[in-house]
Recover the amino acids of this structure.
């Protein structure tokens, strides 16, 4: 066969080859520009905050300093760590978030398995209830939840023993109850994902176990669970991350625990009042903190608060993205 | 009593879902019922004596929310407009990005990770944290006005286009497009999960379908509309519903903020419940209409 040059082949195809290749290169180029541009769009505020927090006061008020501080300082971070009671809050939040997420995922797994593998009257009804918990955000029931937990009676059972209702607000018990009954933050979603996963597992496994005389609970614990570890891990990570940044349940049950969500949202205010007391008073009279500085402190709060999450995300990114793919969500 | 196999199964099933049944009754159904009752009552709470009582008030709270309160109806309309402005672009954006990400190219893992980052970065207290602060919220309006006045590229393009095409339908359309373009950051931040849902859907499409149509001479554009789009239409329903629910439960939404203030600061539980109920009814109606319309278009392959 005769070797033909590119041009010869191009003329042989009436210029189709060249057109195809040019449009392919152009298309790829446009795609790269677009995708990485959008990546930059998402990352830019984070990078901006990061560079701002290392700027000293002079840099902040100097219009010629844009991204790279001339006199870098870690002063804001040190102040932030102190005003947020960062380390104390970090350990507490880690302990509470970890245990609550674990509890929620355990409950959700049980429930999801029940929905995926058993037939019982009323199954459809209860599954509609799961969908309802996904569709109705708890935030909207705020006033009823407040009353419900402030005067907790559990359908009149509790007054039988104590003679009155219990105040569950601001207690860890309240949130433990919610977590243990799969009603924590976005737990309906985890039930949905896990159920979908269990449904797609082959039934033969359980049938074989049953034939060999293995009980239902044991089949679940020893046969189904080990295979489901990756998807459980994904759900756990979601629960952990969303729990970490959640202000709603934290505000309702964990206000006195100094959770990270509250601390990072409050740092701007902490700083403003700290400024009035310590710097404003020293300079004489009532001095409010400059807006630029408050903004920097808010950024410090955000960065310090999400640093553990970013770490988790860097190492476990795969679990986050793949869980939803595995579940094959469909309606 | 001896149970049949089916009976045993049913008992075991109920034992497995027992936590949820208890939790749902105590922490969802009951608050929901109470919320509806409180919306039609005057609620008085006596924190000192651990008591609260409700007195039937009829439509008083609803009337106050819809006719008396100066903010509520305005917030409601604004929220609905903002939702319309966000949900459609989020749908298009996430589908577009998912189609791009479905191809193999160097750096794909990184790009996917970045697009999913908003799921973490735009959750809980992190939403609107810049203006939640008391000092900054005072000046936030001023900052926004300043930004609006500053000449930017999209602003200039918008004024040129409007001048070119004049008033009328085109004008409205350009305004909408420009509003969307200006919102691109918000859109990207709201589409993390949606992109992954679409990606998962795209990966379930059998590649041999594309192969067959390409051999028949179909272009990429035709492939998208004739294969990808119908095959992914069930995901569109999921994504739209997820986006609407996600939008309504944003903690920095105007109505959410109002409920928070009414309940946590004013301690007016009846009024707060009434607002929540109206808001929820409106969203449920939107969900029902949108869900119905889209489910007509959905195509199920198997």
């Amino acid at each position: 066969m005769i070797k033909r040059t590119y041009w010869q082949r191009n003329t042989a195809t009436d210029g189709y080859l060249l057109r195809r290749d040019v449009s392919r290169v152009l298309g790829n180029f446009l795609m790269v520009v677009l995708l990485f541009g959008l990546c930059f769009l998402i990352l830019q505020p984070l990078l901006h905050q990061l560079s701002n927090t290392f700027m000293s006061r002079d840099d902040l008020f100097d219009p010629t300093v844009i991204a790279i501080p001339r006199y870098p300082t870690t002063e804001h971070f040190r102040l932030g760590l102190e005003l947020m009671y960062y380390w104390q809050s970090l350990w507490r939040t880690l302990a509470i978030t970890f245990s609550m997420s674990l509890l929620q995922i355990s409950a959700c797994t049980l429930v999801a398995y029940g929905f995926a593998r058993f037939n019982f009257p009323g199954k459809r009804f209860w599954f509609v209830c799961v969908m309802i918990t996904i569709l109705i955000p708890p935030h909207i029931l705020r006033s009823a939840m407040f009353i419900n937990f402030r005067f907790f009676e559990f359908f009149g059972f509790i007054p039988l023993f104590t003679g009155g209702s219990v105040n569950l607000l601001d207690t860890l018990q309240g949130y433990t109850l919610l977590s243990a009954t799969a009603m924590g933050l976005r737990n309906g979603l985890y039930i949905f994902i896990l159920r979908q996963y269990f449904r797609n597992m082959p039934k033969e496994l359980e049938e074989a176990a049953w034939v060999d005389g293995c009980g239902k609970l044991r089949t679940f614990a020893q046969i189904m669970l080990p295979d489901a570890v990756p998807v459980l891990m994904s759900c756990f990570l979601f629960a952990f991350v969303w729990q970490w940044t959640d202000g709603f349940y934290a505000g309702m049950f964990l206000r006195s625990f100094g959770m990270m969500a509250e601390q990072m949202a409050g740092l701007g205010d902490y700083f403003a009042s700290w400024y009035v007391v310590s710097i404003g008073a020293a300079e004489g009279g009532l001095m409010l903190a400059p807006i630029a500085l408050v903004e920097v402190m808010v950024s410090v709060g955000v960065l310090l608060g999400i640093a553990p999450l970013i770490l988790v995300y860097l190492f476990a990114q795969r679990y986050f993205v793949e869980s939803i793919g595995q579940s094959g969500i469909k309606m | 009593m001896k149970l049949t196999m089916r009976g045993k199964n049913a008992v075991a099933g109920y034992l497995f879902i027992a936590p949820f049944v208890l939790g749902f009754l105590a922490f969802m159904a009951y608050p929901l019922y109470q919320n509806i009752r409180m919306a039609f009552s005057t609620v008085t709470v006596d924190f000192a004596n651990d008591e609260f009582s409700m007195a039937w008030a009829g439509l008083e709270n609803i009337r106050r929310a819809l006719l008396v309160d100066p903010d509520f109806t305005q917030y409601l309309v604004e929220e609905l407009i903002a939702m319309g402005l966000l949900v459609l672009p989020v749908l298009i954006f996430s589908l577009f990005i998912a189609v791009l990400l479905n191809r193999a190219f160097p750096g794909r893992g990184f790009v996917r990770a970045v697009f999913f980052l908003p799921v973490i970065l735009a959750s809980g207290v992190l939403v609107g944290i810049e203006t939640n602060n008391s000092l900054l919220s005072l000046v936030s309006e001023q900052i926004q006005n300043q930004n609006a006045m500053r000449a930017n590229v999209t602003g200039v393009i918008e004024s040129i286009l409007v001048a070119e095409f004049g008033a009328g339908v085109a004008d409205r359309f350009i305004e909408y497009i420009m509003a969307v373009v200006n919102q691109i950051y918000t859109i990207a931040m709201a589409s993390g999960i949606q992109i992954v849902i679409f990606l998962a859907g795209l990966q379930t499409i059998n590649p041999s379908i594309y192969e067959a149509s390409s051999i028949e001479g179909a272009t990429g554009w035709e492939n998208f509309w004739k294969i990808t789009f119908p095959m992914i239409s069930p995901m569109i329903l999921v994504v739209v519903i997820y986006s609407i629910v996600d939008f309504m439960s944003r903690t920095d939404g105007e109505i959410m903020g109002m409920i928070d203030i009414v309940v946590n600061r004013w301690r007016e539980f009846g009024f707060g419940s009434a607002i929540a109920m109206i808001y929820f009814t409106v969203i449920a109606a939107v969900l029902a209409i949108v869900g119905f319309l889209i489910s007509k278009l959905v195509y199920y392959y198997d």
